[in-house]
Design brief:
Elements (H helix, E strand, L loop, with lengths): L4 E5 L3 H13 L3 E5 L2 H8 L6 E5 L7 H10 L8 E5 L4 H9 L4 E4 L4 H16 L7 E4 L2 E4 L4 E4 L2 E3 L3 H12 L5 E2 H5 L2 H4 L7 H15 L6 E4 L3 E4 L2
Parallel strand pairs: 1-2, 1-3, 3-4, 4-5
Antiparallel strand pairs: 6-7, 7-8, 8-9, 10-12, 11-12
Helix pairs in contact: 1-5, 4-9, 6-9
């Protein structure tokens, strides 16, 4: 039995029951919530390994909950998969801007969602064949410890933000096109709709979290990004 816990928040009982069933069958522990208020109470003393969060919730909606979790140093590192009936690029980008790691648009396959959960865990735990720590200027990326520090200060990045920075840091000065980043399976897995704008949002979030060091991620207009040395 997998000891990792998945918290699922959705006000539709059928969906909540379906996800709970499939996640438990995959070996995870599951905590289920019909509304944001109960979930936030649970989070005051809990630290699940992943949160699956519906956007359209009564009372406190999923976007506000995402903001609350990402503002707290205790919960900022918890990966969040957003569920939404809104499938436009703008809605997806908004969730990512708030710090979500992944998203799925309803209706969706429960099996695919379980696969997304496992992909996040793989990204967090997979060993790196190269040196475990890479330093570029004031930024140090520790692939084995899954940590990023800037001048010794530890940052809280999402798994996707970490992997993007890791990829850029392995070849400082090299320009990574958006298309190259989109096609990297280490970032997204095999089946996921990725927009150019999705990459831009993750880069924007990375720059903000890196502070002054964020200026080292240079935009090559019309092409992509590179990490300056």
């Amino acid at each position: 039995m997998d000891e990792r816990t998945i918290a699922v928040v959705d006000d539709e009982k059928d969906i909540l029951d379906l996800l709970t069933h499939h996640l438990k069958r995959a070996g995870f522990k599951v905590r289920s919530f019909f509304n944001g208020k109960d979930f936030l109470l649970y989070m005051q003393g809990a630290h699940p390994d992943i949160v699956i969060l519906d956007i359209m919730l009564p009372g406190v909606d999923g976007l506000e909950i995402c903001k609350i979790l990402k503002r707290s140093t205790r919960t900022a590192s918890v990966p969040i998969i957003m569920l939404t009936a809104k499938g436009t690029e703008a809605d997806i980008v908004l969730g990512l801007e708030l710090g979500a790691d992944d998203y799925m648009v309803k209706p969706f396959s429960p099996g695919e969602l379980v696969a997304r959960v496992k992909m996040i865990f793989r990204r967090m735990s997979e060993p790196n064949a190269d040196a475990t720590a890479v330093t570029v200027g004031p930024i140090t990326i520790d692939s084995e410890g899954y940590e990023v520090t800037v001048e010794g200060k530890k940052l809280s990045l999402t798994t996707t933000e970490f992997k993007i920075l890791e990829a850029l840091s392995k070849s400082p000065g090299k320009v990574f096109t958006r298309d190259v980043l989109i096609k990297q399976k280490r970032l997204w897995g095999d089946e996921k709709l990725i927009y150019d704008r999705t990459i831009d949002v993750h880069i924007k979030n990375l720059r903000e979290k890196l502070g002054e060091a964020g200026k080292m991620i240079e935009t090559i207009r019309g092409v992509g990004y590179k990490l300056q040395t």
